[in-house]
Amino acid sequence: MRIAFLTAPEGVEQIELTDPWQAAVNAGHEPVLVSTEPGKIQAFDHLDKADTFPVQEVVGETSAESFGGLVLPGGVANPDFLRMNEKAVAFVRDFFTQGRPVAAICHAPWTLVEADAVRGRVLTSWPSLETDLRNAGATWVDEQVKVCDHGNNKLVTSRKPDDLKAFCETFLDVFAKEAA
Question: Superfamily assignment of 2-179 in CATH?
Fold first, then answer.
């Protein structure tokens, strides 16, 4: 399965990109780095610059139809940049419209709020997003990982880097079941 990993040109938390990416590769999937601009993205280790990664596809030039699922890594700046980009928000919204599974960790649900994809759902995130998610119509829970089956697709959310092992196992299981 091709899995889109959507990031802004800078601000993604590196471990929240690389751990799920490697888990997808290990499970036999094809992860694809999608961003709002061509070139490279700049990852961060909290507030410090980390590695760069080559963008493989650009929103506006690709579509949700060419992927089996979507992973939204966190980092504080990453989802904040994404939610201000109309094409990125439309790309995310299309996964929900088409019933494709989505996984988001840490601050990534901010992008889901902008895509109006959390209303009526139960999810988790970095704790500081609780009020934003509730104001957008979601029910927030403080759990390591949460799977919400609402409407025509599944959403997997997780809180933070410490939850990455459970996040990766869960989203891969959900994506595999959705593909079957």
Answer: Class I glutamine amidotransferase (GATase) domain (3.40.50.880)
